[in-house]
Amino acid sequence: MKIALTAEGTYPHQFGGVSVWCDQLVRGLPEYDFELVALVATGVEPVRWELPAARYAVALHVGPHSDVDRSYAALGTYAAANGRDGAGPVRERYLTGPFDTADQAQWRTEVCWPMAPAGAGAN
Fold it and tell me: DSSP secondary-structure letter at 30?
């Protein structure tokens, strides 16, 4: 079963009561597939909680966020072509962004596409 967990300004970006509850829920029910939707102010808030382990294909996107869809497309094509398109949300990890430099050519974003185990087939 897939469950969408929406957290506004809390898990996995802040510590505290609601975040503790969310983490206990996600880790305590491993038989369920949680898709975390974190509503935050800027989208570049640091992750404070270590999320449960998962397998990802990762592409380093260099440059402005306006064309990050190219990195998404390349990863999705790779995963589908290899029968490894996994369930769960695609994650972005901002290594260098607008809070670090105004020069968009310097921005670095890891796009992380969920991968199914080998031999599991596409979803």
Answer: T
Q: What angle do CA 43, 37, 62 make, to 5 degrees?
A: 40
Tokens of 78: 């790779």
Q: Where are the domains of the chain?
A: 1-53, 54-123
Nearest alpha-carbon partner for 6 in 39, 51, 30, 32 = 39
Q: Characterize the bridge pairing of strands 91-96 and 2-8.
A: unpaired
pTM score? 0.56
Query: Which tens digits make up the pLDDT trace of 88-107?
Result: 778 888 888 888 899 999 99
d(CA 28, CA 33): 12
Phi, psi (deg, nearest 5) at residue 99: -80, -10
Cβ count near 104 (within 10 Å): 13
Peptide bond into 12 cis (omega under 30): yes
